[in-house]
Amino acid sequence: MKLLALAIVTPGDVKLAKEVPGIDVIIGGQSRTVLQEALCVGNTLIVQASEYGMYIGRLDLTIDSETDSITEYTYKLLPVNLKTAVEYQGKSYYMYADKGYAEDPEVLEFIQPYLAQVDEILSQPVGEALVNLDGDRDAIWYRETNLANLVTDSMRVKTGAEIAVQNVGGFRAGIAAGPITYRDILTVLPFGDRLVLLDMTGEQVMEVLSYAATVKPGAGTFLHASGLTWTNNKGIPEQVMVNGAPIDLERMYKVATSDFLARGGDRYTMFTDAPQYDLGFTLASGLREYIMKKGKVAPKVEGRLTIIE
User: Fold this and answer.
1) Is this prediction's pTM over 0.85?
2) Which GO-annotated molecular functions does the record name (predicted)?
3) Are 184 and 301 part of one and the same domain?
4) Co-location of 206 and 294 in the same domain
5) How many Å apart are CA 27 and CA 29, to the nearest integer?
6) Which pairs with CB-CB distance under 8 Å and at least 24 residues apart come from 183-188?
7) Considering 60, 79, 98, which residue would you say is the last residue of a domain?
8) Residue 5 above 60 pLDDT?
């Protein structure tokens, strides 16, 4: 059971442990995994402390100096200003799961010049939107929008994929017409999701769409796409076209998505069966590069998804 859970959330760590002998410990990252217990693949321990400094992971090893091997270990996660929701007299509050730690004033003062540099970089224009890029929750969570098309197009161009798909839960804002800064892009895509390229048959792509078709608009699992047009006819995917041609169930396609979906997030577990390559680029950096090359962008709604209720 442990290995099954790990295979879904940290596929890179599992692959490394299985294929490279002699690794004693892998300290994973980027997959946002909360590993409350160290997991073993063969003779390799895998640990990970979630994201955004919410935990510090502590791993204590007892090593036999003669055999240079680990004989015992203890591992635990220490919460750092981690808050949990509690109910009191009918109202919801947040309280620290463990100790609360105040900011260190000396460290805070030390990093101010660097924060100023970051602010300057994030404020520089990278391009211009000639139209409003619609990321309004009442729109993008329910139907195709020009912003969703822009983002998925950038994913496809960056990876060279034939198809790109992204769940709407990864979008968090729109961009007003006018200059676009990197801060704007990070506001749209704040989660640091990385681009993953998969080899999928047309039949596997249809499995993705078959699940996506069951998702009610307004849910974070709602799917946006590039290189793909299709009709959701009352929960059944129909008229599926890949770059203008009917999908071939036996053909192999290059599919780009986020590492979140690639590891089975939002119950898109069918992605985990396909060979995948984490390219290391974030969706945000790919979108920034795409806009910089274009200079000016004016994406449109193109009828990529038709919903028949």
Assistant:
1) no
2) 5'-nucleotidase activity; nucleotide binding; UDP-sugar diphosphatase activity
3) yes
4) yes
5) 7
6) 183/122, 183/123, 185/126, 185/284, 185/287, 185/288, 185/291, 186/122, 186/284, 188/133, 188/135, 188/147, 188/151, 188/284, 188/287
7) 79
8) no
Give how many domains the chain has, as a whole number: 2
pLDDT tens digits, one per residue of 241-300: 999 999 999 999 999 999 999 999 999 999 999 999 999 999 999 999 999 999 999 999
Final residue of a domain: which of 79, 102, 118?
79
Category of 169 on φ-ψ map: left (φ > 0), alpha (ψ -120 to 50) or beta: alpha
Output the 3-class SS for 215-281.
Answer: CCCCCCCCEEEECEEEEEECCEEEEEEECCEECCCCCEEEEEEEHHHHCCHHHCHHHHHCCEEEEEE
Residue the block writes with tokens 């912003």: 147
Is residue 112 a part of any domain in this protein? no
25 and 144 inside one domain: no
Looking at the structure, tell me whether residues 134 and 71 fall in a common domain: no
What is the distance between the alpha carbons of residues 147 and 118, in angstroms, rounded to a whole number? 25
Give the SS3 label for residue 205. Answer: helix
Residue type, 130: L
Task: Provide the residue type at 200 as one letter.
Answer: M
What is the residue range of 66's domain?
A: 2-79
Which helix or strand (DSSP H or E) is residue 15 part of? helix 11-19
Are 304 and 225 in contact, with CB atoms under 8 Å apart?
Answer: yes
Burial 7-40 (b: 16+ CB within 10 A, else e): bbbbbbbbebbeeeeebeebebebbbbebeebbe
The pLDDT tens digits for 126-158 are 999 999 999 999 999 999 999 999 999 999 999
Same structural domain, 49 and 164: no
Please check whether residues 11 and 133 belong to one and the same domain.
no
CATH of residue 141:
3.90.780.10
Q: What angle do CA 90, 95, 97 make, to 5 degrees?
A: 130
